[in-house]
Amino acid sequence: MRQGRAELRQVADELAWKYDRGFRLSDEELDALVEASFRLGVHPDTPPAEAIALLRRAHHLDVDNPKHAYHLGRLYLAHERFEQAALWLELAARLAPGSHRVWAHLSVLERWLDLREKGQQGYTGARRERAAHIGADLTSEESRWSGIHDLEAEARLRGDTSGRTRDALTAELELLAGMAAHRTGGAAAFVVLAVQWIVYGYPAATVRRLAAHLDEGAARDLLELVCDLVESDEAELPGALAAALAGGELPGVLVALLHQRRLLRRPLRFPDLGAHAAARRFEGGDPDAVVKALDRATARLTAEPPAHLGEATAKQAVQQQEVGDPRQRLDAVLAVAERLEQARNGVKALIGKRARQKPSDAETYSLLTGDVETLTEVLGRIESRAEAALTELRGLKQALPAAEFGQLLQNGENQLTDVIGPLGGVRGTLTKKVGKKCVAVAEQFPAAAPIPSAEALDLLALLPPWQQPTSVLPPEAVAAPESVETRETPQTPESPMAFADDPVRAALARADDALRATFDRAAATLDAYSGPALRAGPVAMLRDYVEGTRAEALYRTGRGGQARAVWNQMLARNPLDLALLRNLAVAHTCAGDVAHATAAWRAYLVAHYLLDLAEGAPYGHAVRRAELHELLTRGFGTACLRRKPPGPEEDLDSVPLALASRAKTVAVAAHLRLEALNRIICHRDPAIVLGLDRSAGAEQVRAARERRLAFVERACAELPGSAGPAFAALCAKAVEAAADRGPARSHAGNEELAAHLEWVKGLLLLKVRIREGVYRDDADWPCTEYSGDVIGNLRLLDEVGPDPDDDFVLRAAQQVAPGMEPRQFLRAYGAIADQARDLAATKVLEHLRTAGDEVLARQFPLIARSWVRNELPADYLLLLDSPDEVYKEVVSSALRVLAEAAEELDEADRPVVEAAVAAMTRWVTRLPGATGPARMLARLHTALGRYSEAGAVLRRARQEAFSEAGRLEVDFAFVRLALDSERFAEAVERLRALAGGGTDDPRVRVWLLEGYARWIPSEPGRASVADITRDLSPWTDEETVEERRRLVVYAVVQPHNARGGALTALVEELRSIRRADPGNLHALEQEVQALFARAQEIRLQMSQASGQRRRALGAELKEAVRQCREAGTDFAGRSADEAARARIGEILSRLR
Asked: Which of 97-111, 389-403, 829-843 has the lowest mean pLDDT?
């Protein structure tokens, strides 16, 4: 029964909801969920990502059914996710080993993977051999599936286009044409294969003949159109293809393929990059070899492509038979390879022999020049024959079974490649070691003719002039017919004619002109297409292919600037093209342009994030991003930060040198964070994402979730612009999903867990390397100008982690340091900055003691400023600012004398202090910027009464001080100097400025109290009550408040005592103090004493007065006594000072 997608969706969603929440499903319900998921997964309207999820669910519920794995493999294969396709198809093959359909798709997959890997380093052809083995076991005669014939034909098409392949394919096409009417979609299948036949360069006439048997219809019309297009004139083909695309008659992919195969037949690359490079680097010697090699490459570039294959004829069949048995031809090619290798080795040996000879006479000169000419010819013959043999060998791969001859074919190809590879180097050695010597002395032997040696002639005889045998190249690979029009190579500003006197530069100009003309001709074929076709789609990709290969050719022929310009133009059309971004990054890096290279690598990296943002999931490029971040931690001057323990003899001085740069370390820290994020996120496994063992409980999951979310936010903050928050949101979803599932549902296999654990171990080994690099007994970085930078930058790396609560980190720590408790290891290697700081402090103090005066005077300010710049803790800065330990011995005697001395030094003690002054003057010079020695010197000058000298020392110290803390200490030293020199107003003003500057140093309070206490009696009336109150008001503790009240009263009473005055005014001032501060008992006590004194004064005046005056004084006395008694009684009731109360009691007892 067929069901619609909506009905299937309803069934699947209802059952999946129940299953995911732990409801028990019956067997019928489970079967229904499996079948609904499967049908939805293969439904054509289901999006690929959803289809994969549905098919995975179906497989999870029914692991023994091969169809789920098979369709997952097909889906991945259709979207070119080859690695995942291989996993699922292999599983399907294990579940259904007799399914021809599964094995056929595996064969197709292996061939695709072989094509992708071909030409890469380490390519072995193993996948091609496996595909051949599968094909040998799965033949069309055995398979019941008719699609096997199409797959066999497609597999053969992907080989080299040749007459032999054409003849074999013709038979297969005839079979499929005959089957077309008898199988569903047979006509369409034949047309698809026939179009591929044409695309791969085989004659359209064959498919026209076979298509005559097809029924009329859209498939046949499409094939007729394709045949008409490829048989049209080459000059008209671009317009015809563009019209077919614009009219919707052909799909864009087919148009692009036909365009590429029919109009871009010349190679879009320079055939011999080694010859081009040798010409660019040519500095002198015999230019003939260089010019010949370059001209040969140019000729290959400009040669007309072979004529299109025609239909097979009886004559060609006879020629095909004359070619000989493929096994015999393989033996012949292998024999040629042996001979060529023998000749190359002979050339190298003879060059070594001639390199030891000097052309000191005409005979030797003739011998050497003759051998240079002969060996150059031998090398040319070796190269041409090796290339022809390689062509023959690749043709034989189609004719010989891979299972039997695959290894022989591969060995022969490897041998020929090894012969060709070093020939450029051999030519260079011949020119440098032999040719240059002959050119240097050529004027000495003008009549000496080149006479080659017998050894050189024997090598030449080994390779007679080449006669192309009929068994090497297939008969269809013939030269272009004479009617083919040759295009004239356009002249450029660097025309070969401009270098008539320089044959190498002229050859280079010819080569560059030919290369430029090749790409101009290829680009011109795309002019026929309209704007929409070039903005997107296959034709736009074809245009990008032409421009990309042009840029690559420019780059490989030494024109990096022009190549980068082309890549940038392409990038403007597609800013997220990873290949373009990587090319630009590599090009800038190789050009040594660090700024542009850094920006280019960053853009390449960010593009990987943006692509996943567009997909709405953080997984797609996570592994690649992690690899890039790891690579960039060792890029641009940080190559020493490798993830392996240092060797016993390894020089680790480069580690602190790399860590001296803040920009580099910030970049390394950012890359480490983002690498860790991507390494965690790429797995999707809840145990790895959360960093928990499978047995973790709910509370551990909750804590891990919070830690991971905080880490995600911190790591994504390193990403530029809005990409950071957006990507953080995606990663947070992944963390939340992992927490919801819990580590108990981990599906990671042992290999995945081991790989993650290995990565964590690498991070820990990086920490080990960094610590070993900086924390060494012989380290000299602490005494350099970047000492503080290393410590500050290590602090940045300490903040990176790894997470000590991550179970995988603890497990890795156990493996890295089996003798230590894991958390102890992580604490030790997670605080490297603290250990480096302690080491630096010890090393610097040692350096201060031992370094010479001039060296130290130059180095110390640089060390100190680096510590300040990186905000080391205050006690470490104080250690540099006041390194008392290093000079305490030279001042200890003077300090002891000062401690024991009275107010002034005895004459006998002055020489001790004078000697200390001389010693400290030297230390002030040795440690410019350190205020400790200067303050000590100022103190000694003060003890000797040299206040002006002390002030000068302090002013210079403040100007040179490297830290704010040092300048603050100098400010306090100025205060001390002002107090010692009895400049109390200056001392108070400086203390007032310090208090206003925000310092909370207790010396401000203590010295303000001292300053006012000494200032009031020395200059009565200068210190005002308002100033004292304002300056001491910030301190509200009981002691300071009492001292302030005492000083306020003292400031009022002292001028009266010094100058005398009306007691009435004094009483009024004291009362105003009490009104402002009712708790000031000192003012009340002084008021009682003033009133008592006033009463005594009035009594004295009464004794000298009479009459009304006496009566008035009596009334005044009575009031004074009353006020005095009241004030005294108030004081006695409030004061806790027994002595003060006794004094007031005595006064009250004397009142009458």
From this structure: 389-403
| Angstrom distance (rounded) from CA 903 to CA 281 | 86
Contact 1073, 1080 (CB under 8 A): yes
**3-class DSSP state of 747:** coil
Q: What's the chain's length in residues?
A: 1152
* Contact by Cβ (8 Å): 190, 176: yes
Q: At a CB cut-off of 8 Å and minimum separation 6, what does 1018 contact?
A: 982, 984
Looking at residue 844, its amino acid is V
pLDDT tens string 306-335: 666 666 553 344 344 344 456 666 777 777
Cis peptide bond prior to 802, omega within 30° of 0: yes
Per the CB < 8 A criterion, the answer to whether 358 and 437 are in contact is yes
Give the domain ranges of the chain: 325-470, 685-747, 1061-1152
In 3D, which of 666, 642, 654 has the Cα closest to residue 792?
Answer: 666
242 close to 528: Cβ distance less than 8 angstroms: yes
**CA separation for the pair 330, 409 (Å, rounded):** 8
Residue 408 pLDDT > 60: yes
Distance separating alpha carbons of residues 1124 and 1151, to the nearest angstrom: 8
In Å, the largest CA–CA distance within the chain is: 170
Buried b (16+ CB within 10 A) or exposed e, 474-506: bbbeeeeeeeeeeeebeeeeeebeebeeebbbb
Which of 7-16, 735-744, 963-972 is the least confident region? 7-16
* Distance between CA atoms of residues 1141 and 1152, nearest Å: 19
The pTM of the full predicted model, rounded to 2 decimals, is 0.65
Q: Is the pLDDT of residue 996 over 70?
A: yes
Q: Average pLDDT of 290-305? A: 81
So what's the pLDDT on residue 84? 78
Assess contact for 95 and 69: CB atoms under 8 A. yes
The one-letter amino acid code at 640 reads C
Question: In the prediction, which pLDDT does 589 show?
Answer: 84
DSSP string, 46-96: S-HHHHHHHHHHHHHH-TT-HHHHHHHHHHHHHTT-HHHHHHHHHHHHHH-
